[in-house]
Write the structure tokens for this entry.
Amino acid sequence: MGKIFIKDLTTNIIIGVNDRERTKPQPVIINLSFDHNLKSAGKTDSLEDSISYSAVSDKVLAFAETAHTKTVEALAAGIADLCMKEFDIKKLCVKVEKPLAIEGAASAGVEIKRGKKKK
């Protein structure tokens, strides 16, 4: 088993609950990490035996840019659901940060962990 991660995926979107946040796009930083069996990909050197970081990034950005959520909690949950369904990821961590959320802070946000129950 191994872990695939995407660090500091950044986009500008309308997100927030305040009126001022609903009019102008602001930066959002997304970090993902998920468990995946990397043994085959390590042996075959083939992307077919892994998960494409690029494909995940593209889907996550497209979702974030069209989701129209008000909270980072809802955005993170939507990203988690998307990744688990589209890429058959069993366990992941999604972190969503807003760098401009609090004056004087580098960022504020949430980190959620999701996993599919074993059958």
Remarks:
- The radius of gyration is 15 Å.
- The mean pLDDT is 94.
- The longest strand covers residues 2-13.
